[in-house]
Amino acid sequence: MTPFAYLIILLACLFSGLALGFPMAFTLGASAMIVGFIYAGPRVLTIAAMQVYSGMVSLSLVALPLFVFIACLLERSGIAGELYEAIRHWLAAVPGGLAIATVAVCTVVAAMSGVAAAGVATMGIIALPIMLRYRYDKSIALAPIMAGGALGILIPPSVAAIIFGMLTHTSIGRLFAGGVIPGLILSACYMAYIGLRCHFRPNLGPAIPPEERLGVRQKLALSKGVIIPTLIIVVMLGSIFLGMASLMESAGVGSAAILASVAIRRKLSWQLFKEACYRTFMINAMVMWIIFGAKIFSTVFVDIGTAQLIRGVLTEAPVSPLTLVVFMQLSYILLGCIVEEVTMLALTIPVYAPILTACGFDPVWFGVLFIVNMQLGYLTPPFGYCLFYMKGVAPPGVSITDIYRSIWPFLLIQAAVLALVLLVPQLALWLPKVLFGLR
């Protein structure tokens, strides 16, 4: 059979499994095994075993459960709640101040956790009831939590960057550094949009009444809630960027630091520790199974010749290299509506990586573009993860329709920043060059 015929069978198996509701990890692995057996016979079993083993022994993944553990502790320890109380009272007189404070806290939580779920779940429980109590419009109350939570995908220590670096053999330290400036730009744009919209329409996000505002001394007393998160961020990211610790060592130090901070605040209990460990185990097991399936899928995808077939079509197309990258980003936007990031990497990297290398593009720049695109996927209906996280923690009066309607302005901001990083690569490459030197 021709590579095109194998590709048709592979995609038919893949989408049939998805349509029948099978888990993504097993759908990826099983479809690849079926086509691999047709192509290579029993040898595919050896290929599968080698790919699973290479995924298990990857040192880059040692840090993954530790960062997830940090996120799980943040959800339950109250650290984010104290941080939110401090920032929201400093912004009490500003229209939309509660929503702006929500984005600010989500940015800090992102820099401690590396996942979207931590910010959405934590601030959905803490900030959303307060905003609704002060009669915030749902469009201003809901979207900042989801968009701010999605910053955890981009701002280091991003778990998505770890997975991208592991699957594409790209420096994770450089990917971390590359995500800092785009992440801060996104956070600033979110806050600017909220501030401007509520300035011209104060009824959407009214300021806290004067009689409920605190004095300067009380605000300063609350500001101690900023100290612990700041120290944890400095310890984790500073140790990586200054070359004082590896990714795994930094994750270990960060985990110890947040455990110590929870203990100092007398919130550490056996129940809290057990729940955090159990949730970490569940999330890490899910990610590992998807990685196993993705590695088998991408290997078979290359072996049967379909990667070379598609690569030939793309490279021979009469378009510029930058246009090819734009096409890749559009494909990620479409895929982001139906699958998660590891599956997208398995489907596309065997095709895209050689093209990017041939065109001379920096893989760190493309990695940052990919992760920004993943934020779009996490926020895009109908299957955006952040939308479902929000629905899971929202009060009964908030419908999925409210959630879908609220997110569109933030999607436009996200798309604008994606285009900005696409057209100005130095936004993603300047800090890695400063911290790690030229490649």
- When the domains are counted, the total is 1
Q: Total helix count?
A: 21
- In terms of per-residue confidence, which ranges show pLDDT below 50 for 5 or more consecutive residues? none
What series of H and E elements makes up the topology? HHHHHHHHHHHHHHHHHHHHH
Mean pLDDT: 82
Please give the oligomerization state of what you see: single chain
In whole angstroms, the N-to-C terminal distance is: 42 Å
Largest sheet: none
Radius of gyration over alpha carbons?
Answer: 22 Å
Please tell me what the overall shape is.
globular
Number of strands: 0
Task: Estimate what percentage of residues fall within beta strands.
Answer: under 5%
Class from helix and strand fractions = mainly alpha
Helix content: over 70%
Describe this structure in words.
The chain is mainly α and 439 residues long. It has one domain (60-436). The protein is built from 21 helices and no strands. α4 (63-77) runs parallel beside α7 (116-133) and α10 packs across α21 (426-436). 48% of the residues are buried. The model has no long low-confidence stretch (mean pLDDT 82).
List the keywords.
mainly alpha; single chain; 439 residues; globular
Offer a concise description of the structure:
It is built from 21 helices and no strands.
List the helices and strands and how they pair.
Elements: H1 3-19, H2 24-40, H3 43-56, H4 63-77, H5 79-90, H6 97-113, H7 116-133, H8 138-150, H9 159-168, H10 172-200, H11 216-222, H12 227-241, H13 247-264, H14 270-303, H15 306-315, H16 321-335, H17 341-359, H18 363-379, H19 385-393, H20 400-423, H21 426-436
